[in-house]
Amino acid sequence: MRHSTLFFLSLACQAGLLALLLTHASFSESLQKTNLARKAELVENLRLTDLCLFTEARYTRHLSQADLNTAFQDHPLSLEHFPSGSFTQPTLEQFLP
C-alpha cells in the first residue's frame, strides 16, 4: 500500500469522524439548552458571583477578588506552591504603584 493511499484513507476517516461529532452536537443542542437554563436559574437563586477556576490556593480561586501578595506570603522570591499559579497571569494592578 502506498503512503499516499494510507494518508488519504486516514484523512477520510478523520473527516467522517468530524461529521459524526458535528451531527451529535446538533442533535444534543436542545438538551443542553434546557440544562443551561436550569443551571442559570440555580445560579440566580443562589446568587453566585464568580467562577471558581482553581480550588487549591485561595489567591487563585477568584482572580477578581484575590489578594495579590498572598502568593508570596512566605518570601517575596519564594517558589510557587501550587501549580494553578503558573496558569494565571498577573494582573495589571500588580505592576502599578
Feature tags:
single chain, 97 residues, mainly alpha, 48% helix
Derived from helix and strand composition plus strand pairing, the structural class reads: mainly alpha
Number of helices: 3
Sketch the major β-sheet. Answer: none
List how many beta strands DSSP finds: 0
**Helix residue percentage:** 40-55%
- Tell me the domain tally: 2
Word description of this protein:
The protein has 97 residues and is an all-alpha fold. It folds into two domains: 3-46; 58-94, no CATH class. 48% of the residues lie in helices and 0% in strands. It contains three helices and no strands. The chain is flat. The protein starts with a helix and ends in a 36-residue tail after the last helix. The model has no long low-confidence stretch (mean pLDDT 77).
SSE blueprint and pairings:
Layout: H1 3-27, H2 29-46, H3 58-61
Can I get a quick summary?
This protein has 97 residues and is mostly helical. It is built from 3 helices and no strands. 48% of the residues lie in helices and 0% in strands.
